[in-house]
Amino acid sequence: MVDYEACSKKMVEILGLKNEPVAIKLIKKGEPLPEGVPEPEKNLRHCQSIMKARKGECLLMPQNKHACPVGASALGLMPTPEKVASGQFHFALGMFANEEAAKHTIEVRPSLEPGSLEATLVCPLSKVKYEPDVIVVVGTPEQLYWLMPAASTYDKGGRITIQTASFQASCVDSTVLPYTTGVPNLSMGCYGCRRSTDIAPEEMMLGFKADQLPHIVEVLEKLQEKAIPSCRQGQAK
Hints:
A six-stranded antiparallel sheet has the order 2-3-1-4-6-5. Helix 1 packs parallel to helix 11 (213-225) and helix 8 (147-156) packs across helix 11 (213-225). The relative contact order is 0.18. The protein has helices spanning 4-15, 46-53, 69-74, 82-85, 88-91, 99-108, 141-145, 147-156, 169-181, 191-196, 213-225, 227-236; strands spanning 22-28, 59-62, 117-124, 134-139, 185-187, 204-209. By secondary structure, the protein is α+β, with helices and mostly antiparallel strands. The chain has one domain.
């Protein structure tokens, strides 16, 4: 069993995070819902639940507690509403030149099979009492930068390809993509999360598959021996 509390503490200390990493469990259709985990009093977007979890809350989010149909449909909790699929919804926000561009963005977005999930469960990493699927970290570009070599290039070298769009930073970029590909993904945030949460202008998000956590923490500890302090000392000059 992974010591999630210890992993969280090490990540916060090494990276200098303001808040804890968030552990996300994607509860599949037919799986029992965990007992003793509160549902939010008011419906929340997936991004809002992550921001609450990074500050200490554990929340169970069945489909009827998800406030954003765009995120909920990407997460496989419901079919994509026609207004979203047609491009009408996002075009009306002023982020696309026409409905066709907005429609294309929805058509090509990675998403889980509609109806495949029963609920999402979010919790600060240190409080996890379940086996999570994805870990999401919110931090500055410098802090999240160190997670990229820890998750990929430290062992294998090479380069990293990041997938993102102007929408769905937390639901698609930071949750669905790492979950389906096994590859960590970085997002600069999006219209929805920046409008609806307290994510700071200088903060970004990174998601990775939860089974990579022990190795990522192990590499961060190695980077802390030389690379991280050396780089940060140079920044301070």
